Amino acid sequence: MKKNIKALLDLTTFELDRLSKFLYTLLGVTLLANLIGYIRTPMQYISRMNEFMSTQSATSQQALENFGSFSFYHAINTMWISGPIALGISGFLFYAVFIWYREWFGKNTFAYRLLMLPIPRMTLFFSKLIVIYIGIFSLIATQIISFFVGFQLVSAIMPSEWLAGTTALEAIQMNPLFMYIIPVDTLYFMVINGIGLVFIIVLFTLILMERSFALKGIVLGIIYAGAALALAVSPFFIDSILQNYYMLYASEILLIIIGIMTLIAVTSLLVSRHLLTKKITI
Amino acid sequence: MIELKDVQKQFGRKKVLNGVSFTVEKGEISCLVGVNGVGKTTILNAIMNLTPIKKGSITIDGESITPSLYNKIAFIPDAAISLPHLTIQESMDFMNDYYDTWNPKRAKEIVKFFRLNPTDKLRDLSKGNQAKVNLLMGLALDVDYILMDEPFSGIDVFTREQITEVFSSYLVEDRGVLITTHEINDIEHLLDKVILLDEGTIYKEFNAEIMRETEGKSVIDVMREVYNG
Known about the structure:
The structure holds 2 protein chains of 2 kinds. Chain A is an all-alpha fold. In chain A, about 80% of the residues lie in helices and about 0% in strands. Chain A has one domain (about 1-280). Chain A has helices at about 1-55, 60-65, 70-75, 80-105, 110-115, 120-155, 170-175, 175-180, 185-235, 240, 250-280. In chain B, the strands form 2 sheets. Chain B has a 6-stranded mixed β-sheet with strand order 5-6-7-3-8-9, sandwiched between helices. Chain B has a 3-stranded antiparallel β-sheet with strand order 2-1-4, with helices on one face. Chain B starts with a strand and ends with a helix. The interface between A and B is medium-sized, with 24 and 28 residues.
């Protein structure tokens, strides 16, 4: 057991090292884009206000009435901020697939070495899963730090009389995209990330199906993904299925969602273990 | 002993292995021979649980292969299997981290024997030196059995000579070795057993030396008889 945990830690560190270039690039792009956004957006507003005041010989108050005040919400509601989030999500989706296929189709067939390690093969699965999550949380952490730095930047750049008193927290709550990644509501954040985790586990299972059965595995994977998806969204159709839907409390629906997600995750882990141990092919 | 009993394997509708049975004993060098596509690599992959078999059984000292048995058997495939951005030393460190049977002293000796430079990155190595690194990763493990897939494939004559030396050295002493190769001439005199594959089955199993003494035929002669009809 102790040896297996050590192997998991070693492999995770090893995988992290392989992720580092990709992760640092993503973090760098996120920080840079955010920084540009937090400076450029308020500057554009200031320049519009100044231009209006000079061309219309208007007072600051009149300009404010014309354009409205600037809030932090305006600063984060731009492509400079949401773009890197979308890039991060799609980047990690890509990496979740790449992390497996590079072992077969990279310059060297490292899958040989990994599959011949004297450790349970699920260790490979878990190390890759952990690394994906470390990457995602690094990105979330960077985004949170960037938010608060951005808030300070906007407050410093914007004249106080033009700045609406929106807090960073209120601005986040106004943007649904940020609600997914910033832990404002702990339960909501955990459910969203739990669903994300199950999604990655299912994705890994589909990849292993393809790696085990080739074309047949793709067909099998489509069926499996369809079944998992149908099961995952079933709680939202309980009202059509059960007449007494209104009798269920939101917390009960949440419990059903958690139960179904756990079922999908456990099934996928068992299927993956079987594939890795008995069916995987070099 | 590695024991294959009635092993069957199919790719789609094509039967690649059709009831293959043989054994590899400790202390002997066995060679799987056959034309391309006859299933030699598939057999090695199957022994290492790198491809599932349809029917039959494969055991190593009576046990089915489990991860812990990778401390007992090593496979040297016909492909670079270490990460190209690592140095030879880093690759050896990787092996040391996971394998109880990794023997650093032996690894050092093999590095010296093959005249490799541990600080070289694998991506900068020639094909011959990559083949040597593959051998290093397998031979430096204190395992009872070693499988080698085409160790002479695509390398120059001098490297081939160096690799051939391995088979008569202490590096394979007391181990059970199963090798596949087309360059049979180079190692024919070192083989204890030749296993000739044809159409997914074992066509013939013989001792190369006895065959030469009793029938005056080399392994290539026997192969010609089989494949040229």
